[in-house]
Specification:
Number of strands: 19
Shape: globular
Distance between the termini: 75 Å
Strand content: 15-25%
Strand order of the largest sheet: 7-12-13-3-14-15
Number of helices: 17
Radius of gyration: 27 Å
Largest sheet: 6 strands, mixed
Oligomer: single chain
Helix content: 25-40%
Length: 495
């Protein structure tokens, strides 16, 4: 009888303490693939190692049963005592969805719960050791005898050959096996020449490993890949991700991988989770839906005297208009942090890394988290602790967050288009396009649609919208918090 996983999904993991991970929550919800990003030492691999030990194999499986000592090696230092984290699972039973929460901890000699009481699921771990090519493992200088034979699953062999050809942008021939009395090797026909893995580089071999795994695991399996991008050039990496995602959708497989490659941030089918550690090495913040701007800022200093962080392209255009008014655009770095949740996380991350944020402003769109109480609630979630330093950081972050002033329950795009509809069509070529847009399901389309229909590049169109808004009666009150901060900083710094 074949191995079968129960229909299930890993939803969330919360680390109270595990190595340098403290008070950290990571969600795997929404998409089938989750990428864990962060600097060296931020705990990316630790997350994977914990996930590998959550389950026991299904009853008829011959797969390796990963246990905590496989990854968290016991020593006389007792580094793992006091470790504790909880995991949220979703299990589908018939038409019902059952949520379960299980705690894992180590307070003495054993990790709890006992392995035989853990939920059943097939887990496959692909570590960094898979990056070492066969040619470097084989140390023999004498001739290696190889016997060629057909791959035992012809349909799978054809699929691997097809997908490998797509990923590597090459025309491979048959996918085959080679073996001798010591071990077996994968191989291909390439350019009419037999091409066993002994001749392959690490990139080709690792892609074959990924493909064999994704196409042979049972439905609802969990695949963990450490440093997925190692040995792969960017184009091959992005094509590989598309192939993996297609199969994840079909078989409801979850993949969690670690990476440093920024190009993956643009893959909209990946949950992006970026770990941020403070100057002491503790990791307690996980950025979701992050942007390259976030990562670059969290790993480097601002090169300009002033810094303003915003949510999106529209907010950036409006802020740049205010800066131009005061002749400060060249003195201020404007970056996008993405979702509003990231505003708190990025600010907290920078404070934990030892920055003062004296000349930094974080700007919210003004349609959510309007009151101080709402902002404090969000800040308390990302900066924990009752000590004086934690309280000082919370107050500092609160002082760094300003917002555009909007009428209650009005989105920025609605506010702006309502203001611009009062203008004459002759005032700007965008105005007629704005006026004809009817009701929309997504409020962003109130501006996206007229910009698209106008044929103007988005950046130019948003700059023009900011220019038009500057002359509207509502402008002064709309931007007052941001404008006042800029004026004060210009005087303070003498720029």
């Amino acid at each position: 009888m074949p191995v079968r996983n129960r229909p299930q999904k890993l939803k969330k993991i919360r680390f109270s303490k595990l190595k340098n991970l403290e008070n950290l929550e990571i969600s795997f919800d929404d998409k089938q693939i989750t990428g864990i990003f962060g600097t060296n030492g931020s705990g990316k691999s630790t997350v994977l190692h914990a996930l590998a030990c959550l389950y026991q194999p299904v009853a008829d499986s011959t797969r390796k049963n990963f246990k905590f000592p496989n990854f968290f090696i016991p020593t006389t230092l007792d580094l793992w005592n006091g470790s504790r984290f909880t995991v949220e699972y979703e299990i589908i039973s018939g038409d019902a969805m059952v949520l379960d929460i299980k705690e894992y901890k180590k307070n003495s000699d054993r990790w709890r719960p006992r392995y035989q009481t853990r939920p059943r699921r097939e887990v496959f771990y692909i570590g960094i050791d898979s990056c070492v090519p066969d040619m470097e493992i084989e140390s023999r200088t004498s001739r290696i005898p190889l016997i060629r034979e057909a791959y035992d699953d012809t349909d799978l062999a054809e699929k691997i050959k097809e997908k490998l050809s797509f990923i590597m942008h090459r025309n491979y021939g048959d996918f085959i096996n080679y073996w001798n009395e010591r071990k077996s090797y994968k191989g291909l026909i390439y350019g009419g020449v037999q091409y066993p893995s002994l001749y392959m580089g690490a990139g080709e071999q690792r892609i074959i490993k990924f493909l064999e795994t994704i196409y042979t695991v049972p439905d609802y399996s969990l695949i963990l890949i450490d440093e997925l991008d190692l040995t792969l050039h960017t184009e091959a990496l992005l094509r590989l991700m598309c192939v993996l995602n297609d199969e994840c959708q079909v078989k409801k497989i979850q993949i969690v991988f670690t990476s440093h490659r920024e190009e993956l941030l643009d893959c909209n089918f990946i949950n992006i989770r970026h770990l941020v550690n403070d100057i002491s090495g503790k990791t307690s913040i996980c950025l979701e839906r992050t942007t390259p701007d976030c990562i670059k800022r969290l790993t480097g200093r601002c090169p300009k005297p002033l810094e303003i962080m915003v949510e999106d392209n529209l907010a950036e255009a409006l802020v740049r208009k205010i800066l131009r008014t005061h002749n400060l655009e060249q003195s201020c770095r404007v970056s996008q942090f993405g979702s509003k949740e990231n505003s708190y996380l990025v600010g907290a991350g920078l404070l934990l890394r030892g920055e003062t944020l004296d000349n930094t402003l974080i700007v919210l769109d003004g349609d959510v988290d309007v009151t101080e109480e709402e902002k404090r609630t969000k800040i308390n979630r990302v900066i924990t602790g009752t000590d004086a330093n934690s309280q000082q950081r919370r107050e500092k972050l609160l002082s760094k967050i300003k917002q555009f002033h909007l009428p209650e329950n009005v989105k920025p795009e609605k506010f702006i288009t309502d203001a611009l509809k009062t203008l004459n069509d002759a005032d700007h070529s965008l105005i007629p396009h704005i006026k004809v847009v009817g009701p929309v399901q997504d409020h962003h389309d109130l501006l996206n649609t007229p910009i698209t229909n106008s044929g103007m590049p988005e950046q130019i169109a948003l700059a023009e919208i900011a220019n038009l808004m500057e002359h509207q009666p509502c402008w002064t009150d709309y931007v007052i918090e941001i404008n006042d901060w800029i004026v004060a900083k210009k005087a303070e710094l003498g720029i």
